[in-house]
Amino acid sequence: MMNRTKDAIVAAFGELLTERPLSKITVKDIVDRCEISRNTFYYHFEGIPSLLEQTVKYMTDQIIQAHSKFGSPMDCIAPFVHYCTDNKKAILHIYRSVQREVFLTYLDRTAMYVVSQYVETATSGLFVSAAQNEEKNLLIRYYKCTLVGALLDWLDAGMKYDLLAAAESICKLFAGSGKQAFLKCLEIEN
Fold first, then answer.
1. Of the residues 6, 20, 92, 108, which has the fewest C-beta atoms closer than 10 A?
2. Which domains does the chain possess?
């Protein structure tokens, strides 16, 4: 849990990200917005890169905390899309910045969590051997990469197409394929 000053800095940074690109935001802009001193800012953060990392971590933690169980593939995709759409300008400013690696790291982390939780929910109560667990983890990584790839394509397009509609169509086209793959993994015995 962050303290109030840290929360205020992150909130001010988030507001500024909706107004302008990351490269145009300075520590002065943030301290002026928060009405704090530069020393106070530097007490909490080493600089804008560490503030960016904390902000992106906070964003991804919000998605994870709000969505702990996923009953369908669309349940995995919708939280990302809604959060990104609600924070479109800030997300695009981070994604298009030279520091996009921070965003990509947390995007990958969040996608892995979401897909893992979905698979764990879907397979709860089933006995999975060590060999089958390896195959299950392989499927989790595959679907995580698919989710990240879809999100990156959408971000590269400036979030201009309806990702939820596209995801619904894809889920209909591939309905049952994930279950089939998992059932095949349950058959594997080394």
1. 20
2. 4-187 (1.10.357.10)
